[in-house]
Design brief:
Layout (H helix, E strand, L loop, with lengths): L9 H14 L4 E5 L2 H9 L10 E5 L4 H4 L2 H11 L4 E5 L13 H6 L4 E3 L3 H10 L4 E8 L4 H13 L5 E8 L1 H10 L7 E5 H7 L5 H7 L3 E4 L3 H17 L4 E3 L11 H10 E8 L3 E10 L8 H4 L15 H5 L31 H7 L3
Parallel strand pairs: 1-2, 1-7, 3-4, 3-5, 5-6, 7-8, 8-9
Antiparallel strand pairs: 6-11, 10-11
Helix pairs in contact: 1-11, 2-15, 6-7, 7-12
Length: about 350
């Protein structure tokens, strides 16, 4: 299949591996910022194709994983209400809150429903006018346009029983936070191609200049990732620090103007707390005043819920690229996909789940 098989070609992967080996002369640490890339790296054993000078670390690129514990508790508090139908993608249902998860709420009689599209929640609101329907909107810039469309459509259709529990986060501020940390070892980034499909990559240009790091917009197949690493190594070895677009078959510098216009209409840029990292200034989307009537956090008055992360889980260190999942004492023991302690073991994009499933 075009745009799939050719980017999983073993010969192409070996050729890129050889080119990386010929290019590298010193140790370099590169972070991929997307959980989908992390899983591809683990699934296809890409680390085994790289020279020992190249260290890959896994960043906060899983939207489920970076959703803070207190936001999960807010979702649970709303979902427990008798007048609510709470909707979400399936992976969020198993993320543990302080005492339980959304699946437990469902098992105890709460009307919690898994949906496959955020617009399904709008349809449910139309079909259930006597209920308050909430959609749990999480993710990076990739999913924000679809979730923002639910608000725009609910407003257009005159629905008064629909709201969005918004927990969207933005990639560039996270990169800046990581590079600003004392002792960070990251020298180059593979940026998430799907985020840049929406937003473009102009906002990465000042980061590359400020911190003197190459940022390579990269796809998700094995050949994409190896090519991204090769481009990053080429820049590092030459002392260049630029934004480069490996994923040019999909990504344009300006992104998707229609999607960006929708985001600007529905959302404001706000400070956002990240699981295990803390509050990062201007790192998220919040529902704008124009659409305040669709903001579940305000409607249900759950903004004051504040909780601390469990100490036994090192999710924060994993998400910052400071620790590898197997360095956690609970990994594969107290913490498994069936009984997770933290979100990185739950999500299909979580680093801990990737290491668990692919044998690391």
């Amino acid at each position: 299949m075009k745009y799939k098989d050719e980017y999983r070609d073993a010969t192409a992967a070996r050729n890129l591996s050889g080119a990386i080996r010929k290019s590298v002369s010193k140790p370099w640490t590169i972070m991929e910022i997307c959980g989908g890339q992390t899983h591809a790296i683990m699934k296809y054993g890409l680390e085994d194709l790289l020279p020992e000078e190249i260290t890959l670390v896994h960043g906060p690129g899983c939207p489920v994983c970076v959703t803070p514990l207190e936001m999960i508790d807010k979702a649970i508090a709303i979902a427990k209400r008798n007048d609510v139908i709470f909707t979400s993608y399936g992976d969020m249902l198993r993320v543990p809150g302080s005492d339980e998860d959304l699946l437990s709420v469902k098992a105890n009689g709460g009307d919690v429903r898994m949906v496959y599209s955020p617009m399904d929640a709008v349809t449910i609101a139309e079909e259930n006018p006597d209920k308050k329907v909430v959609f749990f909107g999480v993710g990076f810039e990739t999913t924000a346009p679809g979730n923002g469309m639910t608000v725009a459509q609910a407003h257009k259709r005159g629905l008064t029983n629909f709201s969005l529990l918004c927990s969207h986060v933005l990639v560039p501020p996270a990169i800046e936070a990581i590079l600003s940390m004392e002792g960070t070892q990251v020298q180059g980034f593979l940026a998430a191609g799907h985020v840049c499909t929406v937003m473009g990559y102009e906002e990465y240009l000042p980061l590359a200049e400020k911190f003197k790091v190459p940022i390579i917009v990269t796809g998700f197949e094995p050949v994409d990732i190896l090519h991204g690493i090769y481009l990053c190594v080429q820049q590092l070895e030459a002392g260049r620090f630029e934004v480069e677009n490996q994923y040019s078959r999909v990504v344009r510098k300006e992104g998707n103007p229609a999607a960006k216009a929708l985001l600007a209409d529905v959302f404001d840029v706000v400070d956002r707390k990240w699981r295990g990292i803390g509050r990062i200034p201007e790192s998220g989307f919040g529902i704008s005043e124009k659409y305040a009537a669709y903001d579940a956090e305000r409607i249900f008055d759950v903004g004051d819920i504040k909780v601390n992360e469990p100490e036994v889980c090192i999710a924060g260190a994993v998400l910052q690229g400071l620790r590898k999942p197997e360095e956690c004492a609970a990994f594969g023991k107290e913490c498994t996909p069936e009984h997770p302690l933290g979100a990185p073991m739950v999500s299909s994009e979580g680093a801990c789940a990737a290491y668990f499933h692919y044998g690391k």
